[in-house]
Amino acid sequence: MSTIDPLLTKALARKKVTTLTLRQKKEHGEPITMLTAYDYPTAMALDKAGIDAILVGDSLGMVVLGYDNTLPVTMEEMLHHSRAVARGAKTALLIGDMPFMSYQVSIEEALRNAGRFLQCGGMDAVKLEGGRERVGAICAITGAGIPVMGHLGLTPQSVHQFGGFRAQGKTAAAAKRLLEDALLLEEAGCFSIVLESVPGCLAELVSKKISIPTIGIGAGAGCDGQVLVTHDLLGLFDRFTPKFVKRYASFHSEMQRAFADYIEDVETKRFPAQEHALEMDEKEWKALLKEIQPVTD
Ligand code: KIV
Prior knowledge:
Bound molecules: 3-methyl-2-oxobutanoic acid
């Protein structure tokens, strides 16, 4: 008898999450959950666990592809990973992160690349970084019917402009500018805004001032939802862990332990054991031996 996975049953019973669902959650004061995924099995596990939204983040560049920052990530890489995620998750709202230089050159390129995330990547929406300077691109993309999530605060594609991965919005002037940007993104048609590495009091103020949901990462508990990079949460990325991350597992050391056990098992011939081997029908085996026996007269 086959056993039914209760998480899968629950996931199948859930309705597809849309941008409207996130808006309603904000209106009802229900926290929105979002995590990143870059592959099929992770997307499937997130979906079964009941996550609201999955971001195929360009953090891919750091936590999966091993770059120092997100700048080298290309559209082709993002689409490749987006498709894998789309095959694994059927219920969560799927958001593709527009990589560096895919939306900054011209509004036309921004629109075309945003469209590719939906047409060739299986995504439901896109995310892009920046404030007032992105309003033109956001208006064009949302005008084509593509939902856009904004991203303010520490926007990692501007790491060199910031002089490192540094918290933002810490002075009164910077905080005022960020609040203005949030209002402009809302007006441009964004359905939600990520607030990254900004003081909690500022994130809470922005969340109260705009009607679209804010999703915080290192922005305190006053946002309408929370997002983390899944590899940080799982302890899969061991180069560094930002202060705002809560770790729920230590998969990197667990992987290392499993690999070391495997190596030892193979080297000491404990693996494969009898139960891992395939059997052959005795009659067939004998027939083979007879067949290959050297002919003697
Ligand atoms: O790329 C990413 O994972 C992100 C999140 C940190 C919001 O942009």
